[in-house]
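Handout, page 2. Input:
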Amino acid sequence: MNKAIAKLIAALMALVLSVAMIVTITYAWMTLSSTPVVEGIQITIGGGNTILVAANLTETVDGVTYNYPGHFSDTLNFRLYDEYDYLNNLAPLSPVSTADGVYWFLPERYGILDNEVISGGAVAGQLKPITGFTMEYALEHANLEKDNTEASKGSYAYFDFWVVSPGTDYTLRVSKGDDNQGSYVLELMTPEQTEAGSYTLTLSGGSAQASARVGFLVNEDYVVDNTMYYYQNSYSFDSRYSRLRGSYQIPGGNMWYSSEYRFTIFEPNADYHPLLNDNSYYMTSPLGWNGTDVYEANISNRLSVQLTNSWITRTDSNHIAINEIFQAATIGKDIESVQDAKRIFYEDYLQRQFSPYVRRGSFIKKTTDLYNNASDNAKVSAETLNAMNKAGATDDVYIVKLQKDVPQRIRTFIWLEGQDIDCGDSIDISDLALSLELAGSN
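Output:
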């Protein structure tokens, strides 16, 4: 982008800065085998007071829940708000697919009693065609709690927050960021014990990071119920903000309708394909619903594509290698297992602040270039990809256009895209570090 940038740094599970998740890939789908841990949730703003953020606060009256912004500032610490406690109690995420953030598709597999298996046309455990998947649109599989057996059928997470631009109209995009923060998804390097008994970090060869997705659902309708009354009577009320935007479905509620909504998908590590050993880009085709049929959707106008992120494993004049920091952090420590090494390094020493040790991939400047250069098999070769214009953010895709002095509520989803080409049949366990930075341009 050539215009002035105001940074919005988000640290939360996937707006959530540096969150760790245990991922297990089975068949063509991935399943998180451990609860995502949300710690140190914080959003900070750069570039002056051009963009401000606030937590989503709620008040329930006569069974109706009203959502309004907390205190707007350039920093937001989610640990201070009870409304976000549920992020620390999530059930394991398991693959789903969505093209619009409204309709979600859960995988279905053949059982031993299915006619297709009995006739020999399929085997038990094999994924059914997408027409046989289960569709849900009432958030029934969102934010499931620990030990919820329904999570194995498909689950995803979401949270709400507010953004406002008090100075002028602004347009938000996902951004590469700088050396201090930025957007990325990476598998954590794994501690391994050497023959001498010490520990060292090794790179993971898994494909989990290639299948993670972050989506931003934005409804720009003005809130017309009694929300403003409760906002005006809250400690966080600011008289500059006389209107609010953004209403969303509640779990188990009626189908959510809006005069207009937008769902932007962020795809990190787009050219990272460890199972294929190929640095080309394969067009993502999440599942959508046209009212009668499920289909593989074209999301070219709502897709922000970032190239491969990587750990800095060699110290230079500007960066320190993460493996060297690991040695410094663990020397002389009483380490009895890999889990001890992980805790001492990632939790105690780094406190999940991974950004200084990550080399972030650039964004494809125009998503339309990807689609225009794709072959008949929806592939963009590595050579063509390398020749494309890169940038710190995608020019022709945005999350929302903020109206001056009008707080906008944004719903952010985190899921594992089952339609991703990197969901292979091998089994791989790894931790994922996710970070997100948003940028605003006037």
